[in-house]
């Protein structure tokens, strides 16, 4: 992963809202286990997405990565400098 692609992934992560997380199956009643805690995980994610991503179960994290990657631009070629930086 290039620095530009990582930077863009962080931008995507920070731009996600609750509807995005629900529609992608990332948020599913307390990150997969209703008994996990009494914390407001959606509120925690929206306040600090990176920290909350590290706390969620692997299955939810994998769905989050799929969501973030689905919003990454696709390079149109591998020869020009602009596309290699994506």
Which features would summarize this protein structure in a list?
58% helix; mainly alpha; elongated; 86 residues
Description:
With about 90 residues, this protein is mainly α. It is about 60% helix and about 0% strand. The mean pLDDT is about 85.
Q: Tell me the distance between the termini.
A: 9 Å
Structural class: mainly alpha
SSE string, helix = H, strand = E?
A: HHHHHH
Rg for CA atoms = 15 Å
Q: Give unreliable regions as ranges.
A: none
Give the SSE map.
Elements: H1 3-15, H2 18-23, H3 41-47, H4 49-55, H5 58-70, H6 81-84
Helix pairs in contact: 3-4
Concise overview:
The chain has 86 residues and is mostly helical. Helices cover 58% and strands 0% of the residues.
């Amino acid at each position: 992963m290039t620095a530009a692609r990582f930077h863009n992934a962080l931008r995507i992560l920070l731009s996600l809202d609750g509807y995005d997380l629900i529609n992608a199956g990332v948020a599913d009643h307390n990150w997969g286990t209703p008994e996990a805690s009494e914390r407001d995980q959606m509120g925690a994610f929206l306040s600090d997405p990176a920290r909350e991503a590290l706390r969620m179960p692997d299955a939810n994290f994998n769905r989050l990565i799929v969501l973030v990657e689905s919003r990454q631009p696709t390079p149109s070629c591998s020869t020009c400098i602009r596309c290699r930086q994506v």
